Amino acid sequence: xxxxxxxxxxxxxxxxxxxxxxxxxxxxxxxxxxxxxxxxxxxxxxxxxxxxxxxxxxxxxxxxxxxxxxxxxxxxxxxxxxxxxxxxxxxxxxxxxxxxxxxxxxxxxxxxxxxxxxxxxxxxxxxxxxxxxxxxxxxxxxxxxxxxxxxxxxxxxxxxxxxxxxxxxxxxxxxxxxxxxxxxxxxxxxxxxxxxxxxxxxxxxxxxxxxxxxxxxxxxxxxxxxxxxxxxxxxxxxxxxxxxxxxxxxxxxxxxxxxxxxxxxxxxxxxxxxxxxxxxxxxxxxxxxxxxxxxxxxxxxxxxxxxxxxxxxxxxxxxxxxxxxxxxxxxxxxxxxxxxxxxxxxxxxxxxxxxxxxxxxxxxxxxxxxx
Amino acid sequence: xxxxxxxxxxxxxxxxxxxxxxxxxxxxxxxxxxxxxxxxxxxxxxxxxxxxxxxxxxxxxxxxxxxxxxxxxxxxxxxxxxxxxxxxxxxxxxxxxxxxxxxxxxxxxxxxxxxxxxxxxxxxxxxxxxxxxxxxxxxxxxxxxxxxxxxxxxxxxxxxxxxxxxxxxxxxxxxxxxxxxxxxxxxxxxxxxxxxxxxxxxxxxxxxxxxxxxxxxxxxxxxxxxxxxxxxxxxxxxxxxxxxxxxxxxxxxxxxxxxxxxxxxxxxxxxxxxxxxxxxxxxxxxxxxxxxxxxxxxxxxxxxxxxxxxxxxxxxxxxxxxxxxxxxxxxxxxxxxxxxxxxxxxxxxxxxxxxxxxxxxxxxxxxxxxx
Amino acid sequence: xxxxxxxxxxxxxxxxxxxxxxxxxxxxxxxxxxxxxxxxxxxxxxxxxxxxxxxxxxxxxxxxxxxxxxxxxxxxxxxxxxxxxxxxxxxxxxxxxxxxxxxxxxxxxxxxxxxxxxxxxxxxxxxxxxxxxxxxxxxxxxxxxxxxxxxxxxxxxxxxxxxxxxxxxxxxxxxxxxxxxxxxxxxxxxxxxxxxxxxxxxxxxxxxxxxxxxxxxxxxxxxxxxxxxxxxxxxxxxxxxxxxxxxxxxxxxxxxxxxxxxxxxxxxxxxxxxxxxxxxxxxxxxxxxxxxxxxxxxxxxxxxxxxxxxxxxxxxxxxxxxxxxxxxxxxxxxxxxxxxxxxxxxxxxxxxxxxxxxxxxxxxxxxxxxx
Amino acid sequence: xxxxxxxxxxxxxxxxxxxxxxxxxxxxxxxxxxxxxxxxxxxxxxxxxxxxxxxxxxxxxxxxxxxxxxxxxxxxxxxxxxxxxxxxxxxxxxxxxxxxxxxxxxxxxxxxxxxxxxxxxxxxxxxxxxxxxxxxxxxxxxxxxxxxxxxxxxxxxxxxxxxxxxxxxxxxxxxxxxxxxxxxxxxxxxxxxxxxxxxxxxxxxxxxxxxxxxxxxxxxxxxxxxxxxxxxxxxxxxxxxxxxxxxxxxxxxxxxxxxxxxxxxxxxxxxxxxxxxxxxxxxxxxxxxxxxxxxxxxxxxxxxxxxxxxxxxxxxxxxxxxxxxxxxxxxxxxxxxxxxxxxxxxxxxxxxxxxxxxxxxxxxxxxxxxx
Lengths: 371, 371, 371, 371
Hints:
The structure is a homotetramer of 371-residue chains. The two termini of chain A are 39 Å apart. Chain A has helices at residues 17-26, 42-51, 63-71, 89-98, 113-126, 140-150, 176-181, 184-187, 192-208, 301-305, 317-332, 343-361, and strands at 4-9, 31-37, 79-82, 103-105, 130-132, 157-165, 212-220, 231-238, 243-249, 260-265, 268-273, 279-284, 289-293, 367-368. In chain A, a hairpin with a 5-residue loop joins strand 11 and strand 12. Chain A is globular and about 65 Å long. In chain A, the strands form two sheets. A nine-stranded mixed sheet of chain A has the order 13-12-11-10-6-9-8-7-14. In chain A, helix 5 packs antiparallel against helix 12 (343-361). Chain A has 371 residues and is α/β, with parallel strands linked by helices. Chains A and D meet through helix 1 and helix 11 of A and helix 1 and helix 11 of D. Strand 13 of chain B pairs antiparallel with strand 13 of chain D, so a sheet runs across the interface.
């Protein structure tokens, strides 16, 4: 069974996320990077190709050249990974889908909700797989958490607290990563809420298996002069009546990438933290606290199959990311990968951003989340 | 210099907080328990006196008897500690103050805001000290946190997240402690918000040195049939424009007494957790993280003077509580104890409870906190 | 039931441990400090008495005066607490026992093994209680650990690792506490091994219920010119064949009071750390890890009865110390307190120190521990 | 610059470490796996080749076939990775070196010291690079620790405690991994001491920059009937007089892969734990404790260049392993990679194992480590 061939869009010199997608995609030898448009600038695209050590002829100057060039090859690409800033997600995906090429895309799916709707149409028309890299759902213990909740370990869920604190934008937005994320023309109307709030939102729905139906949003641009939000508080109501709180911030000095989630039900509680991802804490109402270890022998099939090392040998962000690519590869091969985030998550996430931004601006109080 | 003599009101058989007040009051040999009305039932009051090993003649049947009896003695009480359920706080304090006896009271100050106003009048008229046992402000590292914030270590404060998760009321409210706390006739209109939300509110103001000016409250009675709130989310605005989030819950299964607070400013961040109270984490915007240890040699005078053991010898809740009593004793002796919580905290806390309850009920959105 | 009356020997101005004994003794209102010889200097003894707020007439100039004075009173002392440097333990205990007064003593029991033997004779002759304040055995979760091991939770014990790292003597020995501890005339031939190694040794035997039968000791004076050991490695064999390692050091910079112990058996493992004393970690051979919380509802009777606060309200060193005094008070009242460390622990501890010092000096390899 | 081509020896069906070497080698796109003798059984070798998705023609039946076949290709292998059980390390390395093919090998280098000497001769004669995968030295914060110690952050080193607790062999040795590791014919005379003790030994020398000159070893086969050691205590002396303790065990129930190290000098202390590898704790003698974060901006060049993700995005065991391969690739390309473990570490490690086993068997006390 041959490796699937990946083309990359974006990820050129200075990119943070491009090399990470490459490592994640290739980790399990299911996929190899063979081509790309690594930059909209032809010279920089070539430079990008060199950095990945691919055939220079396959470091293309633009999307059309890539889709045409690859179509003409026997060993052409099987799919593209989109790793550009947000505003380029839709154009790239549209071109790929028009060419009948499956897409896996960094999040958020698009810069705006209108774009997301167009994307959904394109995906529907193309009839090829679309994946969205909500990386954190790839962690084995996140899968385990979801499985335990689904199996009723916590009883009916009553309360979810999901937090995503960061501090790297507490000062002026300097450097490529900071600049486009704080520029609404490139990031879309949501700043922090789109960049990391969507991860938190998706994680809460993913683990709980519950949909958010109403929100109350309070977004702020704390750093003076910042054109997008950098600190977000959102109250949530889930479809079963459970209450939730979502906190996301990029101005909390000293916080690194502190995504964490707590779920509480009638019978138990559960805690997971991205920065120490290899343990899961489970409380039961009788007062017991259990620590579940990645790679340990209390885990269900989904977690086990997504673990590469024995217990005590830490896996991290790259391995979680690789699990998303593994599910995407399975989808391309026609196998079942029911937990792969896709166009539904894309629409839910962009609706969440759009609703939060407008409701906060209008001080609208509780509003429904209409996806 | 003789020990101050304490009378206790409440704290009889089955009391959780009475014996804790006694230990805290006596820890530094500044104070000794000598008398009390330990129950409104005379027999139970006697039984309470025996459990504390005090002179049986000084275990009184009612408040009048105690104030009269003690006044008649040369070695009569110097003050009373009120440790009853909330609805008895005002009657007890009123009687003491009317007798010219200083009061230290468990929190919240009263059951209702109207009672708090009456209390404030009584205190003003009596002209004797009144202290409120916001225990957590007694921790040496909370004092240190306050001192560092005041000294500008974090720069201008921008964001405060204070959480008080508990899980012990996730099921039916059984037992003396649970029963009165979930009975609005005894606890007041606030359940969780009064019982622990007030601690979180006061701690945020204490450490930051900032007053809350506006709130948006969302309180719920999650357990079916519960007459008071047991899960609270409150958004805060501070006088300097800083944003805050206050979470308090008594239905988060597995949480014990997880009060914790994070403050973020322009230059740094700070984290303290009640359950591991002997470390304080300080982040600076240059990326450094420092762990400050109780008893260590980076501490300021206020923290040092409230520490009894060398670093690495954990102090806990009782020692923090004792620090409140030490400050109260200092006040009685005419010394300065500027950080002792008192009638101002009482009024702010009850206004917070009252405002949160009514604003949440009315879905009022942001409302001012008018103390 | 009246409070027991305590006289203190040592604990005068500048003492670290005197005030701690006082707090611990009085915490449960079983005991009160009423008299003492707080210093061998009469003026300093008076000063000590004032600091404890006791009757000035009962701050004696010497032991004879105290024992005579107190014997003459109706409300004379019931026992003495010895809190001097090591070399004064025997003289103080001898005098008390000769006067028929029960003794509770700080550890190590004496400065030398020869003295310990004399002490044991005195105790035997006097026929009154003798207690030794191995404080750490007072922690509720240490009691729980012992109970679980005794109940077979770990199966047959195979391996014990006990560590006691400190760093406060990494530099020159300055200040009263450091000076006498590094002076063999006052501390005895053992430095670190006597000061904290004895705690570690006693804790390993206490929790495991097993006696050490052989040791291999490697002690060093790491700081140049130090006349006693400050860094100790001791290999242990227990009576059932289990292997052990005891590490104690006072030159490990940054370590505070890091006593910790791990026990492993055929069926499970267990970990406890003094600096975070309110959790106990239990591993079972099926891969499960459980966190047991102080005050939680999985605890046995011995732990429960020695806990003063609900779960999540941290207790610490002073409360553990108070549990030792509670057991001593029970012994004085004729009640059963089988876990109170006493003259047997004294003899075992001093034999351990003496054997370790001589075996290390002689590079003797494995030697029996002959108590 | 093309990718280097790797042949693998071992790593066939059921192998734990083969797939891990493959992921590590390929992570940075410096290297690709193209060939192998994945098993000494031809059919199983083919099966192994399929699992790695390599050209079936390059899944060879034996070493001779591989070296001949690859030599005949223009795109033949550049080096081999040896991932067999210990007793096959020497034969595989000997064959590769005889063919002039560079070698990277799993540790320990060989099964016996005699074999290691022969290996060293082969390496010397072949004049091609030899690398040894002491994976843990690949962690960025281990590099940082080494750099800080070298820069004098701790002052003169006085004490090192290195521990490697595991529990997976506490019961009967079942399964492929357990079986060969407890069979002296395949693992060599050292069991635990060779399997993980060598890692601990090498890590202590790596971070401290100091050589061990003397040891006192106490090894045991705790599980009845086990032919090799499974629990090891070794006292160390370093060339500068510093004292050390090395603990390694495979019978400590509940321990996973708990490699950890603490170094103490005249001015500071340092702690690193493999299971939470992204933080490093640094104590200074003035009482300060700093937490250094992987990816943070206090790190030196060596750590920074070996980090793939921003701070807060955990990297783990596979990324550390990849750093070893990155250094090996650099060596093959003629670049400097001074921290790559090689034949010197091989000889030191096997001398350590051999000396520990014989000294423990003979109860020899302190013995020199003569490499």
